[in-house]
Design the sequence.
């Protein structure tokens, strides 16, 4: 139950972070947004170090660095995806892709589900799909580029989550610190190489920094949830983060929330209840 609640918290934080990061990327080049978000995330993880501890052994360093490379790619592709929109379609597409790979890894590693879990897990996956349902004629449809970016972002997020899960359980926040340091360095290098193409627009500092802080909180909650529960379950619950993005897009940007999306939110609630019984 604790792992489930942590995963739900991670989902909420990811959804809010994605919404704010997408808004920030609409105001300036996506790399300018990530250049603010990534260091803000690193600052939060460094502040957590004295309280949660960190063991920088070989396993934590390797898996943390791998998660950092994946995180840098996920940041850039996800924020660019949400910047060109529509958020209420592309965010759930990304989430579905990000859920499938960790579920497969968890099951291959021998995780087993009870009867309630066997119903709840596919229902949760269906809920992710339903949250993206319902855009019809007259609604903004995603371009091919946006869909490709959404799939790429989902794969990068999945790889990041799997790498964090593989890090030693006694490593504290070391994988997060190493991962964020690597992602910040990768982003800085990419921005340096593309400096002339970043444009003159200044980044939305407050939006970008807040997105980074929330992403760091989401990563921490996921790491704690994955250490206390099954990756297959935790990853799917975390992948429900589009609910937060969709609701914020509705409230702030007046994007429509369709019946299919409301049905998806209801299915998600049932799925979480079933998974809590496993």
Sequence:
């Amino acid at each position: 139950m604790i792992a489930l609640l942590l995963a739900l918290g991670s989902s909420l934080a990811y959804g809010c972070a994605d919404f704010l990061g997408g808004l920030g990327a609409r105001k300036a080049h996506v790399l300018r947004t990530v250049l603010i978000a990534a260091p803000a995330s690193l600052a939060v993880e460094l502040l957590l170090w004295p309280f949660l501890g960190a063991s920088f052994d070989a396993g934590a360093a390797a898996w943390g660095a791998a998660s950092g490379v994946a995180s840098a790619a996920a940041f850039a592709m996800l924020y660019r995806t949400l910047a060109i929109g529509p958020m209420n379609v592309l965010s759930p597409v990304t989430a579905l892709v990000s859920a499938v790979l960790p579920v497969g890894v968890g099951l291959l590693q021998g995780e087993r589900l009870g009867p309630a879990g066997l119903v709840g897990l596919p229902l949760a996956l269906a809920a992710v799909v339903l949250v993206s349902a319902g855009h019809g004629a007259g609604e903004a449809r995603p371009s091919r580029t946006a869909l490709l970016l959404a799939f790429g972002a989902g794969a990068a997020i999945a790889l990041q989550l799997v790498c964090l899960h593989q890090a030693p359980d006694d490593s504290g926040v070391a994988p997060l610190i190493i991962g964020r340091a690597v992602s910040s360095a990768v982003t800085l290098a990419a921005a340096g190489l593309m400096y002339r193409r970043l444009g003159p627009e200044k980044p939305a500092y407050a939006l970008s920094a807040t997105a980074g802080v929330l992403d760091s909180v989401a990563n921490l909650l996921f790491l704690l949830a994955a250490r206390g529960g099954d990756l297959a379950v935790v990853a799917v619950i975390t992948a429900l983060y589009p609910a937060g993005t969709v609701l914020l897009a509705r409230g702030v940007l007046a994007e429509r929330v369709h019946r299919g999306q409301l049905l998806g939110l209801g299915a998600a609630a049932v799925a979480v209840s079933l998974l809590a019984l496993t």
In short: DSSP finds eleven helices and no strands in the chain. Residues 134-138 have pLDDT under 50 and may be disordered.
